[in-house]
């Protein structure tokens, strides 16, 4: 029997994180201070981050040692297993081998503790007593709560009120690990009090929650702020996913043709992909795909027709469900990667042509996630469903092309605390999109003269 | 949200009960939430998330005052660290303001 799980021993776990800044063909432009117009200096961030993390944020060193106390905590769930999705392969009936890195294996059930643990550690050694943060879905808040407990730090999480009310189990996880989880807007901060005075029934927003967390940290010299995605040091810590996967693939003598991750803020995607992007920069042939959410209904409304797989018309014509290769309206195409919440490194890699962005709508993603659960058993987090939808698309392409492919992706977390989202999907609350027929007609004009299957 | 005064209330809230999964919050929200997420302006992702459901861009354009629409559409993406610096400065101002108010209040005590 071919192995399903490819495991690493704890002694084989990487001892360094990988920093892609050292290998970028063109360096990232430094962000400018909004007040001075000059590049941001490390001390500008000192009110919210400890200097040891700021040093990582601005570092161009290729490899950064993982401290021993962090490795000890990582060993609670790392190295995470690399698994072969054989049952899902059977369902897709395509010439692909699908491997996934199971990051749902961590105590909070996602990839988030890969950075929460080092962030708590670096704050601890810097002399900080308490961390403040904001959370939306609660994945980050719960990961940081656990990490703070591991290093004896207090933790205060401002959770967007609408999520606080929708997701009691995430809140209870945070409280179980000893964190203070507060519905935002709250009366703990001037920012929250002002919102409550103006809008007593405000459901909150991530913008308000982050304002509260920052204010909480700025107002207490022994507190700092912690962020779970986007920033360079967060992406750095997550590279342990891809570094382990690199070793695990080598153990079975394979190298992926395609590496995929879902991209919200970019940290999970960066975690699985950056070590492979490094190979690509140095000449290795590998396709790297960031899967992000959109409302584009290409698979649900389009006819099966020959079309290019990309807007640049560089791929061969392939039969596919399509609304035309240039259908995606301007604000939607790779929209999340232009969106201000995306990691600059990821946006930069897309711009450089090293990473491809693909968008999937909620119906496609939940359909893929349910199919995954019914074949592989594990119920994915709704965010993870985006990359599973991308894997399905990649497998079907391989089938159409008649070409064997090895696919690797990050299974970023389980959905056991997000079953309400599955309820919404399974009970039909997430309705299929109803794009006007005239818009579909207009979009299809671009493929009117292409051959039909 | 600063609504265009010409639009009747019934039309302003016409899509408010539609439900979508918010990729930022990881849960279901209504369109009514999205169009007010940014306080007086919609969430930055509103068009991205809703465009497949109904002509949201045209709806928001007709609903917002011209200056708010232009402010919202014109807000370019900012690097996260830039946003953090702005929030740090705003927090300092708020904390200083509260300190000043406390001192003023204590000074007036008999």
Distance between the termini of chain A: 38 Å
- Overall shape of chain A: it is globular
| Number of helical regions of chain A | 18
Q: Order of strands side by side in the largest beta sheet of chain A?
A: 1-4-5-15-10-11-14
Pick out the low-confidence regions of chain A.
296-302, 308-312, 327-340
Strand order of the largest sheet of chain B: 1-2
Q: Give a quick account of the main beta sheet of chain A: strands, pairing sense, barrel closure.
A: 7 strands, mixed
Average residue-wise pLDDT of chain B: 82
Instruction: Show unreliable segments of chain B.
Output: none
Oligomeric state of shown chains? heterodimer
Biggest interface reads: A-B, 69 and 48 residues
Q: Could you tell me the radius of gyration of chain B in angstroms?
A: 19 Å
**Helix/sheet category of chain B:** mainly alpha
Name its key features:
heterodimer, A: 453 residues, alpha/beta, seven-stranded mixed β-sheet, four-stranded parallel β-sheet, 41% helix, globular, B: 110 residues, mainly alpha, two-stranded antiparallel sheet, 6 helices, 54% helix, elongated
Structural features, described:
The complex is a heterodimer of chains A (about 450) and B (about 110). Chain A has about 450 residues and is α/β, with parallel strands linked by helices. In chain A, about 40% of the residues lie in helices and about 15% in strands. A seven-stranded mixed beta sheet of chain A has the order 1-4-5-15-10-11-14, with helices on both faces. In chain A, α1 crosses α10. Chain A starts with a strand and ends in a 9-residue tail after the last helix. About 5% of the residues of chain A have low confidence. Chain B is mainly alpha-helical and about 110 residues long. Helices cover about 55% and strands about 5% of the residues of chain B. A two-stranded antiparallel ribbon of chain B has the order 1-2. The radius of gyration of chain B is 19 Å and the shape is elongated. The chains are: A alpha/beta (about 450), B mainly alpha (about 110).
